[in-house]
Amino acid sequence: xxxxxxxxxxxxxxxxxxxxxxxxxxxxxxxxxxxxxxxxxxxxxxxxxxxxxxxxxxxxxxxxxxxxxxxxxxxxxxxxxxxxxxxxxxxxxxxxxxxxxxxxxxxxxxxxxxxxxxxxxxxxxxxxxxxxxxxxxxxxxxxxxxxxxxxxxxxxxxxxxxxxxxxxxxxxxxxxxxxxxxxxxxxxxxxxxxxxxxxxxxxxxxxxxxxxxxxxxxxxxxxxxxxxxxxxxxxxxxxxxxxxxxxxxxxxxxxxxxxxxxxxxxxxxxxxxxxxxxxxxxxxxxxxxxxxxxxxxxxxxxxx
Length: 304
Description:
Elements: H1 4-31, H2 37-56, H3 66-93, H4 96-102, H5 106-117, H6 124-146, H7 152-177, H8 187-211, H9 220-247, H10 250-254, H11 259-271, H12 278-301
Helix pairs in contact: 1-4, 1-9, 1-11, 2-3, 2-8, 2-9, 3-7, 3-8, 4-11, 5-7, 6-7, 6-12
């Protein structure tokens, strides 16, 4: 019998493996040409909303009062609209490996927000972890912009990295501020409403591009990748996240983001759409060390 914490660990591991595959697959989809980030996000949000509502017919129905629906709406903005829209936009501007490396900052961002909101003390070790992890971020930016310094693609790459970082801030806010709230409902109930609200907010922005796609010209391989992004990297991951959120501390749950660059690196290399150099390896190491120091400090402080 798997314990609650065990379920939480497995849920976050599975979710982050799927998210790790999302960066190179999203990049591959957008490299096709006719599908931009607006269309891809529309596919994700609309497709996941449909999937969750279909799934809701096979689980026990839960009544959600209007006040909680309002809170779910706000949660959907941070967890899905701001997070996913900004993330996919960032991926369209930078490499999938850069994007996945930046996602490893989520535990550190979560720690900082928890310090202000949950009044958890920032110890010397936590501060050291932030500095070490921050050094990794600087190295990512430097190594990426040096490859094509002074060019338009350099500025676009930097902007992409910044957008992916902002997406992590948005998701960290959701993880910390809504941890207790998500315990009230099942993952399917919670997500069917969150993705419905997210779709209603976002689709007006992406509908022009989405509706004018030449769907007959899109090859099967691209549809296959879109299907995985919708069902694997969106429906499955957001089904798993509330399980991890309920059973693990925010910092521990977001630690599994470190799986993403490893998965993305392997997938991108196999797909031939990115390269992995020694500087990026050092950047990953710095982020891992920073996150480890932060998590170790939390254990020593005795905080739960």
